Amino acid sequence: MASPPFPPLPTLPKPVVSSGFRISKEQLTTVIPVAVAAVVGTYLVSRYFSGVRSGSKGQINLTVNKVSPKVVHSFDIEDIGTKAVYCRCWRSKKFPYCDGSHAKHNEETGDNVGPLIIKKKDA
Ligand code: FES
């Protein structure tokens, strides 16, 4: 029987690859759902609070002519008279005119909106 051409190599120790952090499959079945729930929960809470701040789902106009794709009012300046007060908070029952509803809106939301007042210099 012929001997091998080279002497056998000494047995080398196996390299140890470890970050010091190990997680089992059983732990993964708990960690993954908790992580997903945390991400989804954070997203839903942030969506809820962004909706609360701006009314409903980011809409400013909650009630005025909602069937129209765009609410537009136009006035001839000659017809305004000496003074006109227009709503900018979209809460007025007399929209587009201000009825003072902005005060309640500001109190409830911490907002600071008010009307647009157009008047002649003398008025
Ligand atoms: S009611 Fe809207 S600004 Fe006054």
UniProtKB/TrEMBL annotation:
An individual GO BP term: autophagy
Record has Iron as a keyword: yes
Pfam hit, one: zf-CDGSH
InterPro entries: CISD1/2 (IPR045131), FeS-contain_CDGSH-typ (IPR018967), MitoNEET_CISD (IPR042216)
A GO molecular-function descriptor: 2 iron, 2 sulfur cluster binding
A GO term from the CC aspect: mitochondrial outer membrane
Superkingdom of source: Eukaryota
Named cofactor requirement(s): [2Fe-2S] cluster
Membrane-topology annotation of the record: Single-pass membrane protein
Coiled-coil spans in chain: none
Iron-binding zinc finger CDGSH type domain segment(s): 70-108
Keyword presence, Nucleus: no
Alphabetized UniProt keyword annotations: 2Fe-2S, Autophagy, Endoplasmic reticulum, Iron, Iron-sulfur, Membrane, Metal-binding, Mitochondrion, Mitochondrion outer membrane, Transmembrane, Transmembrane helix
Transmembrane parts of this sequence: 28-49
Principal location: endoplasmic reticulum
UniProt subcellular location: Endoplasmic reticulum membrane; Mitochondrion outer membrane
Function of the molecule: Regulator of autophagy that contributes to antagonize becn1-mediated cellular autophagy at the endoplasmic reticulum. Participates in the interaction of bcl2 with becn1 and is required for bcl2-mediated depression of endoplasmic reticulum Ca(2+) stores during autophagy.
Subunit field text: Homodimer.
Sequence similarity: Belongs to the CISD protein family. CISD2 subfamily.
Protein's name according to its UniProt entry: Iron-binding zinc finger CDGSH type domain-containing protein
Protein's organism: Coilia grayii (Gray's grenadier anchovy)
